[in-house]
Amino acid sequence: MNGFDVIIIGGGAAGLSAALVLARARRRVAVVDAGAPRNAPAAHMHGFLGSDGRPPGELLAAGRREVEGYGGELIAGTVTGLSGDVPSFDVRLADGRRLRARRVLVTTGLRDEIPDVAGARERWGRDLLHCPYCHGYEVRDRRLGVLGGSPEAVTHAHLIRQWSAHLTFFTGGAALDQLERARFRARGIAVVEQPVTQLVVEEDRLTGVRLASGDLVPLDAVFVRPRFVANDTLLTAAGCAVTADGWVAVDAGGRTSVAGLWAAGNAVNPRATVITAAGEGSAAAIAMNNDLTAEDTRHAVDRLHAPKGVLA
């Protein structure tokens, strides 16, 4: 078993940002990554200062180089088990390897559950979109649609209206009350109550949606509010407290209710964009290094006052 100051589970923006800070703090740090980032389908990321329009894979590749440049270790693999507490955690990988660490940071992200519509999975992150702050500008003033079916979808439609006046809301079979209909009319948002059965694609480009009646509604892009499901099994299995809405609770520095265990990014914050996740990873790294420094100091004092011949 190999010992580290910190093991980071998940090598996305949050995990790599944390690893960079910790490696520069001269901590022995390892990042274990399964290689399946949430934003892999997206061609470009936006709203990240200094990296706007950059392919997300390029950002991660640069981050890995930076972490390794400061002595951080990158380990390809999937973590299947996490146990222990301060001062020693046991991290188990699917291939049988076991790693030890004084502290653990979980940055395993989340997965998006999208509507069961033909073509949806293939177009996800391309012209079936979620975040208007990430992709809205690129489809501004075009023919846009919003798939309904959840309580949040109505609010999402009003948000998408900021980027285009050519907007259609598909109710997904859900009933709209008079106030909701009046608000849509006031903002010029068309409403279609027939179910959407298919995303229509021609020459690798979305051209519209097919309704249950067979009619085609021409569109250039479609937004949907997916159901966010945190990849937090390692955290909940370790006994971390959760909030009223079911997400693992962390403080401003990413500390969970379990001593020595931190979390950052989409694993605990469904609203975190790439730049937000990177910032949360950095904040967690600073908090973890402060915690380790306090422990180092206690050990140094214990050794100083230990009787001769007795190891503290």
TrEMBL record:
GO terms for molecular function: thioredoxin-disulfide reductase (NADPH) activity. Signal peptide: none annotated. Pfam families: Pyr_redox_2 (PF07992). Keywords: Flavoprotein, Oxidoreductase. Residues 4-280 form the FAD/NAD(P)-binding domain. It catalyses: [thioredoxin]-dithiol + NADP(+) = [thioredoxin]-disulfide + NADPH + H(+). It comes from the Bacteria. PANTHER family: THIOREDOXIN REDUCTASE 1-RELATED-RELATED. This is NAD(P)/FAD-dependent oxidoreductase. It comes from Dactylosporangium aurantiacum.
